[in-house]
Every structure is written in structure tokens, then in C-alpha cells.
Amino acid sequence: MAQNPNMLRTMIGLGMTLIIILSYAVYGATIASSYYYYHTSNETQNHSVLDQGIGEDNTSQSWTFSTNRATTWINVSFVGLEEGDQITIEVSDGVWYYHEMLGDDDAEQFSCRQAAESYEEYNVCSAAESHTVDVTEDGNLTVRGIVSPALPMGGIGSLYADSLTEATKDSEKLISDNNGTKVWTVTLSVTDSIRDDEFEPQVISATHELELVEPFEVDPVTEMLWSISALIGCFAMALVVPMCVYFAAMAKEKRESKLRDSALRKTGELDKDPDAGQS
């Protein structure tokens, strides 16, 4: 490279060309995004439960309630439970998802969707019509479950579409596909006998209605500047090694040239008259 400085100029020129091309590509993709946001109401609702009575053995009691809108999750809470009691929640249509870490204080932002090493997502929550939860200590207990994992938990989701009209239709279809009446049965089984009006579950659910669909937008100038900075940084790192080698080779060549000139001066060859040998 030291013998051919054009190589360094070629690498710098090629890097700048790639920076301009890739920056324009990022700018074009930013102003023509095909992703859309859809916003939903994400309202919480308290449900009234219908008491189905105490079992014949006085060790179990059941309640029912229903959901008739697009529902993301449900919470069923009891107070005054004892270790060894069991709570069973069953849905009349379809399945619901449960995991003991859902909503746990020790599992911040736990999600049923996990990514494998191949970056493929899979669901770690178990899906069934009925789930039974054991009470492990005296006190209160809340059973949390996911009803429709396709709906946005936070009330905002994204999708890919060719136009705003198509994105609106897809969003409406997502909500309508998860609408429908579901009847839930909650059964409490205890180790001792149950007295009348001793227990009553508190049921809360989150429901969704489509409110707004809008295109995903970012500031193209800002994104282009960030992309240019990132590309310049990448190519600068790629050019650091060859440029260091180039300047090191140039410095070595200058140093060797100075040493050579110094040695010639000491022997007097530089001051010698080239015509002295001909006289």
C-alpha cells in the first residue's frame, strides 16, 4: 500500500460512495414505510359473577361470568384462602393461556412469547380450556390469564400493509375475529367446608375496540443523519487498520532513507566529486 497510494484513495472513494448509496436507501425506506400502527381502547372491566352454589360435600363452590368483546386478559382474585386450596377456571369456547409468572412481581415484563436461539418465537404459556392453580400459602391469590394473545396488550400494535385502507381492514378483522361471547366458570375447592357468602371472586378483564389506524412515521432527515453517522463509523473502523499500516510503512521508509543518507555522509560519498576519478 505504501508503494501504491492510489489504493488508499480508491478505498476512501469506495467507502464514501457506499455511504451515499446506503444513506439514500435508508432515506427512501423511511419515507415509504409499509408499516401501520393501530390503536385500541384497552379498557378494564369489572365483571359481576353469578353464584352457582356450594357442592354437596361443602368443599367446593362455583361462579360464572361472561365476556362478549375482544378480550386480552382476565384476572380472578380471591381473599382469605388457605394453603392446599385449589382454583379452577374453565372457558366454554376455545382456550386461554396461563403461566405462574404472569403478573408476578419477581418476573418483570414477563411475556408468553419467547425467542429461541434461531430468533423464532414460541409460546411458553400453556393453552387449555381449563387451568387449575394450587394455593401454596395462606392469604390472597390472583390468577392471571391471557385470552387473546394476538391482541395488543398495551392497546397499540403494528402490522404490514400496502395502504392505509388495507391496514384498517386488517385491524378491524383482528378485533372482530376475537369478538364473541365466552362463558367462564370459576371453581374453588377447599380442604375444609365452605360457608355461605364466605368467598366471592373479583374478576377484571381488558377489552379492546379499534380507535385509530395510522402509518408508521419517523423523521426522514434525522434517520438519514443517524444512518450516515453509523455508516461513516463503520467504514472508519474498516479503514483504520489499512491506514495505520500505510502511515507506518511511509514512516518506516522515511526513517530508512534518513539512515541511508546519514551513512553516506559519514563515508564521504555524498561530498565526493563525481569527476574526481577522471582527472
What does this structure look like?
The chain is of the alpha+beta class. It has 2 domains: 1-33 and 217-256; 36-215, no CATH class. Helix content is 32%, strand content 33%. It contains 3 helices and 16 strands. The chain has helices spanning 5-31, 164-177, 220-267; strands at 35-40, 43-47, 50-54, 60-67, 70-81, 86-91, 96-98, 113-115, 121-123, 126-128, 130-134, 139-146, 156-160, 182-189, 202-208, 210-215. The strands form 4 sheets. The chain has a 6-stranded antiparallel beta sheet. A 5-stranded antiparallel beta sheet has the order 3-4-14-6-11, with no helix packed on it. A hairpin with a 5-residue loop joins strand 3 (50-54) and strand 4. Helix 1 (5-31) runs antiparallel to helix 3. The longest helix is centred in the last third of the chain and has 48 residues, at 220-267. The chain starts with a helix and ends in a 12-residue tail after the last helix. 15% of the residues are buried. The model has no long low-confidence stretch (mean pLDDT 82).
Total number of helices: 3
| Helix and strand sequence | HEEEEEEEEEEEEEHEEEH
Overall residue-averaged pLDDT value: 82
Structural class from helices and strands?
alpha+beta
Total number of distinct structural domains: 2
Identify low-pLDDT runs.
none
Strand content: 25-35%
Coarse shape: elongated
Count the E strands: 16
Main beta sheet strand tally, sense and closure: 6 strands, antiparallel
Main β-sheet, spatial strand arrangement: 2-15-5-12-7-10
Radius of gyration: 36 Å
List the helices and strands and how they pair.
Elements: H1 5-31, E1 35-40, E2 43-47, E3 50-54, E4 60-67, E5 70-81, E6 86-91, E7 96-98, E8 113-115, E9 121-123, E10 126-128, E11 130-134, E12 139-146, E13 156-160, H2 164-177, E14 182-189, E15 202-208, E16 210-215, H3 220-267
Antiparallel strand pairs: 1-13, 1-16, 2-15, 3-4, 4-14, 5-12, 5-15, 6-11, 6-14, 7-10, 7-12, 8-9
